[in-house]
Amino acid sequence: MYSGFFLALMTVSLPAALPASTVAGSIWENAAGATDATPLNVPTTTPDITFTTSTPINFASGSLYTIGEFLASGSGSTVLTGSSQLGNTLDNTLFNFVGTVSVTNGETFTAGHDDGLTLVIDGITVISAPGPTAFSNTTSTYTGPTGTFAFQLVYGECCGAPGDLAISLPLQSSVSPEPSSLPLLAVGLIALGAGLKRKLR
Predict the structure, then answer these.
(1) Residuewise pLDDT in 10s, the chain (201 residues)
(2) Distance CA 201, CA 195 (A)
(3) Domains annotated on the chain, with CATH
(4) Which runs of consecutive H residues, i.e. helices, occur in 85-180?
């Protein structure tokens, strides 16, 4: 009886569909690393702005050339901290995006950018175009193992309007349980139910 109750509880508690995958983002203003957008140049200081966004990552500055305008151009972006800084200029800003991707060996990624960026998946640099540039598309191939891994995307906007960043990543949700952990959860709940049943007898 109780084990059936806990099984029913488990199926009700788990979401029918996984929530939309998100990326965590941080922004530093007046960053020297904006001219060389690599992980080594991401500041260790507290970011001026933190936010989340979804895939595809697609931002473009408009006529105002402000941080807020840039973030608002991306779908699903939510500012978490630093909202008072959104009216500031986009010039000399460094962005650091982190999340989880599910990738296949030999998969190709194309990033549109103005200015520079670096994409790292599982410690492997996939795209390395860190310097200032007019808008360009950079295509590179992932050479690491197939699987689900952490990624880091560093983007720098340094040298005047416009600012553009566009890349589609196969994101995985960081808030949902791994599929391999679900059977373990079920076993734990069944054991808990059986234990309570014995105790009540």
Answers:
(1) 444 433 333 333 333 333 447 899 999 999 989 999 999 999 999 999 999 998 889 999 989 999 999 999 987 899 999 999 999 999 999 999 999 999 999 999 999 999 999 999 999 999 999 999 999 999 999 999 999 999 999 999 998 899 999 998 887 644 333 444 445 445 555 555 555 555 555
(2) 10
(3) 19-175 (2.60.120)
(4) none
SS3 108: strand
Coil, strand, or helix at residue 93?
Answer: strand
Tokens, residue 140: 């590179």
Token digits of residue 16 = 């029918």
Token duo for residue 64: 């105002």
Q: Is the dihedral of CA 13, 56, 38, 60 positive or negative?
A: negative
- Joined together, the tokens standing for residue 70 give 């840039």
